[in-house]
Amino acid sequence: MTESTTAPRPLRIGVIGAGPAGIYAADILTKSEVPVEIDVIERLPAPYGLVRYGVAPDHPRIKEIIKALRRVLDHENIRFVGNVNYGTDLTLEDLRAHYDAVIFATGAIADRDLDIPGVDLPGSFGAADFVSWYDGHPDVPRDWPLTAKSVAVLGAGNVALDVARVLSKTADEMLVTEIPPNVYAGLKLNQATDVHVFARRGPVQVKFSPLELRELAHSPNVDVVVHPEGFEFDEASMRAANEDKHVKQVMKTLNAWVGKDPTGKPHRLHIHFLEAPVEISGDGQVENLRTEHMELTGDGSVRGTGEFTDWPVQAVYRAVGYRSSALPGIPFDPSRHVVSNDGGRVLDADGNQVEGLYCTGWIKRGPIGLIGHTKSDASETVSHILKEVSPDRPAPSAVDITTQLELKGVNYTTWAGWDLLDAHEISLGEAESRARVKVVERDDMIRISRELLG
Question: Which residues, in sequence order, are CB contacts of 344 under 8 Å at separation 6+?
């Protein structure tokens, strides 16, 4: 007679956030030896987070990552539940009752603050809001004021380049991308002829990727002008330029542009180095940006020189970084704008681990790093879960989370519904000779997906 054994019950895991961070965590969990059942819960009706709503529409190659994310969400032990807002539709108590562990992967979607006078003037915009507009985010207005002829973009990263590029190109150039119809109509009214990108540090210290930088010159309607003032190097800069392959590629592109006169194209994209914003001013509207010229200190940092320049601009876009927002009931570090954590384990105010709560992605480490960092982040967090959350613990509620959502009247979306909506957007694009046409209204997304499901 053989002794019968009972297979361990699957761990039930809730993942809050359906961007790359949350989806990678779910993927790693399904590939472990521990049986799991995972709900990926998303505030928006659609998955993919900033890959859908944070990547410039004229960069479709970056969105190739969606193919990999789709394969993960197709897994039989992963369920997508969209249009569910943590904190209102579901509380922390709800999640604790339904899951053995909860991973928060809510990312960073707000603009970092820039503390200079005049930053709140009309015509001063956060880059994150503008990116959300041109990517068809359902939570932003459908219109955007594009009346400025001269525009300043503050920042030295790829978001600054994206914003500057979208503001510089013509609407018809963007029509072949997946911009929503309202964005195309808005860009048709764009009056910008000169877009100025201001970097606080020198050319070697910028965070542009080589490919993003080179693409600035691909438009037949935009001259790229790299101003020689501020195009300077110190000892640390020279070492980086000689030793870092990434920096070498960036410098090769910039060197080809520096000091070249515009060729007469209708739009100009200017890049200025060693210019730090100190004040935005105007009479009830942005009319001027003042910058302080900086100097390199020899160790890769900069200091002010006391020399100021006024730039007559009618709009300012702040691309100085993203920040995460606090989550109801979850300990938050307001100085770093991340969930208080140790390697993905959520910590309380006394530094003690909060049982069953974890985090990953930008809400864990801040808005830095590329996809590779996100994967390693998720691996670290999942390793703690697999060590600390035992299937021998008392099982969570047998009531399915969707049952609770239905009782609350929440119109949640499903993976099957999203799959049909995705195909619908692509078919709209094919009909208009475009990549796809995004459905941007939240109610329309839910209605269409439900109608297609029958």
Answer: 358, 359, 360, 364, 377, 380, 381, 384
